[in-house]
Amino acid sequence: MQNIRCRLVGVLCALGLATGVGVGTAAEVAADTGSSGSSGSVEIYLPIPTPAGMQALTAAMTQLGRPYEWGGTGPWSWDCSGLMQWAFSTAGIRLPRTSQEQARVGHSIPLSALAPGDLIVFYRDASHIGIYAGFGQVFNAYGPNGAPIGFTPLNHWSHIKTIRRLG
């Protein structure tokens, strides 16, 4: 059984997929397969949503159509990071207030592992954040002031700084 696990882990790593599931140290894997290697852990990430991410996405989407307001923290209007902070709080996760701070929480994952409920931070200065909704759509609060909160195609954004998975 361990040999199958080791082969699966190797295939997933070769494909560049990822879940945050620890697979043991290289020494443990080597002991199972009879090969030698250096110690260290390997994390893989798969495009599988976390329960907390899905709960936050569901909460965020209840705000569809509410107006964007720079500095808005709800409940009648939101800015991007205020909406993410509130949405994740419904899942029991406390996020810092700004998108720059939120860009450092959770686990960084590759684009190939993007799943609904993951935070996506945009621009080099991390000045915008949204939550991936699936099907190439990001749910976000995006200005100018008064613009309705909703979905924006992922390919609309010119630069993804990081993708973060929580929960």
Quick structural gist:
The chain is of the alpha+beta class and 167 residues long. It has helices at 2-15, 26-33, 51-61, 80-89, 99-102, and strands spanning 21-25, 41-44, 107-108, 119-122, 128-134, 137-140, 150-153, 160-165.
Describe this structure as you would to a colleague.
One of its GO terms (molecular function) is cysteine-type peptidase activity. Keywords: Hydrolase, Protease, Signal, Thiol protease. It comes from Gordonia mangrovi. It is a single chain. By secondary structure, the chain is of the alpha+beta class. The chain contains five helices and eight strands. Helix 3 (51-61) crosses helix 4 (80-89). The protein has helices at 2-15, 26-33, 51-61, 80-89, 99-102, and strands at 21-25, 41-44, 107-108, 119-122, 128-134, 137-140, 150-153, 160-165. It has a six-stranded antiparallel β-sheet. The chain has a two-stranded antiparallel sheet with strand order 1-2. The chain folds into two domains: 2-44, no CATH class; 51-165, endopeptidase domain like (from Nostoc punctiforme) (endopeptidase fold (from Nostoc punctiforme)), CATH 3.90.1720.10. Strand 4 (119-122) and strand 5 (128-134) form a beta hairpin. Mean pLDDT is 83; it is low at 1-36.
